[in-house]
Write a structure and sequence with these properties.
The chain is an alpha/beta fold and 445 residues long. The chain has two domains: 45-287, Type I PLP-dependent aspartate aminotransferase-like (Major domain) (Aspartate Aminotransferase, domain 2, 3-Layer(aba) Sandwich); 295-435, Aspartate Aminotransferase, domain 1 (Alpha-Beta Complex). It is built from 18 helices and twelve strands. The strands form two sheets. The chain has a seven-stranded mixed β-sheet with strand order 1-7-6-5-4-2-3, sandwiched between helices. The protein has a five-stranded mixed β-sheet with strand order 8-9-12-11-10. The chain is globular. The protein binds pyridoxal-5'-phosphate.
Length: 445
């Protein structure tokens, strides 16, 4: 193999420093190579034209990159989907998934129990684009979804395991309601991961992830993923999604004519993602792909630890309640047993008897558990939703969402469970002292 410019070429130093060694062996690396490049050299004139006409091969990293593509194949395989698109964050994955489906004047039916960033996207950002949303509180009731559905509804959205109440969605039941109107059910599967639950197997059409969480696991990179079932049926749903079945601006065949049942994700890959542009770094794609290689080991360990910790907390006198679907007392426990046979995940909330003063003392006393806003990490993490993620809600809304003044969210990691309970005991002792102090003060006042 020769360099584009040979060492013998009589060129100046500045030219040599950017062109020498510009060609290298494409060796079959066993670990995923990181193609950290903005773009790719075209072989010749026709190659460039062909790439722009068909999208085949690689031209520019915003429209395709071998490292990112390898991760996308892995994600599609794990979720049992036809294809996947990897983007820069989970927030981008939700945005891209919904903007690939919805147009101005369309309506979304959405679970009330969702990540606050998603709620903001729907209400503030998509709302401004003329996309309407109605929320379903009782997500276990298929009729509640049916009743919220309108003529202009184009999709349903929910989380497989919800934040903060840990409700587990009966995906098959809600997918069946969506299918009555040929609508896709989009599931945010961040909390469950494909190791515990694969929504497409239960009838979901699209799955989204914050890959920054369990998929990466190390907390070193952000990323987001969207996986499609590849079962778009133009005969049933074509009229609902004209952008998938109509000829494009230049009169070229529609996405459906070119990609058939993969039309939804093909449109997102060709149009939504590259135009809106939340392109991930190939380095981050590599970091997420590395994380995924140990997903089952981590999630199995984390779920076991979480069940042990939740059980331990439920028996502690300083704790008022524990919202973990793995516990028999949780309203979703029966659904969880059906959908999560390998474990119930590692993120859940619990509520201290001493209210906010107890929560403050708790987060300031932990030493093994880290106080931060993240989840799905190999390290255990804690956050007080009432004064952080859910602070902008009215108190009444917070309570409806399961966020009380003494509620804390835990994301349990892979540490030794005895070290976690020792840390929790220390923090609960501090919380009890602080909570009691506050109560005495209230009585005095
Ligand atoms: C359920 C869920 N979906 C989406 C997101 C957004 O992901 P990211 O932070 O990677 O943008 C989060 C982030 O916490 C989340 O918890």
């Amino acid at each position: 193999m020769t360099d584009l410019l040979d060492a013998s070429d009589a060129v100046g130093f500045s030219t040599r420093q950017v062109h020498s060694g510009a060609e290298w062996h494409d060796a079959p690396a066993r670990a995923l190579p990181i193609y950290l490049t903005a773009g790719f050299r075209f072989d010749d004139f026709d190659h460039a034209a062909h790439h722009f006409q068909t999208g085949a091969g690689f031209g520019y990293t915003r429209t395709g990159n071998p490292t990112i593509e390898a991760l996308e194949r892995r994600l599609a395989g794990l979720e049992g989907g036809a294809d996947a698109v990897f983007v820069a964050s989970g927030q981008a994955a939700v945005s891209i998934a919904l903007l690939g489906l919805l147009s101005a004047g369309d309506h979304l039916v959405c679970s009330t129990h969702i990540y606050e960033g998603t709620r903001g996207l729907l209400l503030d950002n998509l709302g401004r684009l003329g996309i309407e949303v109605d929320f379903v509180d009782d997500i276990a009731d298929p009729d509640a979804w049916r009743l919220a559905t309108r003529e202009n509804t184009r999709a349903y959205f929910a989380e497989s395991i919800s934040n903060a109440r840990n409700d587990v969605l009966d995906i098959a039941a809600i997918a069946a309601v969506a299918d009555e109107r040929a609508l896709p059910l989009v599931i945010d599967n961040t909390f469950a991961t494909p190791y515990l639950l694969r929504p497409i197997e239960h009838g979901a059409a699209v799955v989204v992830h914050s890959a920054s969480k369990f998929l990466a696991g190390h907390g070193a990179a952000l990323g987001g993923a969207l996986v499609d079932d590849g079962r778009f049926d133009a005969a049933r749903s074509g009229a609902l999604f004209p952008h998938l079945v109509s000829a494009d601006r230049s009169g070229a065949p529609s996405v459906w004519e070119r990609h058939g049942a993969r039309a939804r994700i093909a449109y997102i890959r060709e149009s939504t993602a590259p135009r809106l542009g939340p392109t991930p770094s190939p380095l981050n794609a590599f970091l997420v792909a590395q994380g995924i290689e140990t997903l089952s080991l981590r999630v199995r360990e984390q779920s076991g630890n979480a069940l042990a910790v939740a059980t331990w907390l439920a028996a502690h006198p300083a704790v008022e309640s524990v919202d973990y679907a793995g516990l028999a007392a949780h309203p979703s426990h029966d659904v969880a047993l059906r959908y999560l046979p390998r474990g119930f995940g590692s993120v859940f909330t619990f509520t201290l008897r001493g209210g906010e003063p107890a929560a403050r003392a708790f987060v300031e006393s932990v030493r093994v558990i880290t106080h931060m806003t993240h989840l799905g990490d190999v390290r255990s993490l804690v956050l007080h939703p009432g004064t952080t993620s859910h602070a902008h809600h009215s108190e009444q809304n917070r309570l409806a969402l399961g966020v009380h003044p003494g509620t804390l969210r835990l994301s349990i990691g892979i540490e030794d469970v005895d070290d976690l309970t020792a840390d929790l005991e220390r923090a609960l002792t501090a919380a009890t002292a602080a909570g009691t102090g506050e109560r005495v003060l209230e009585v005095l006042v």
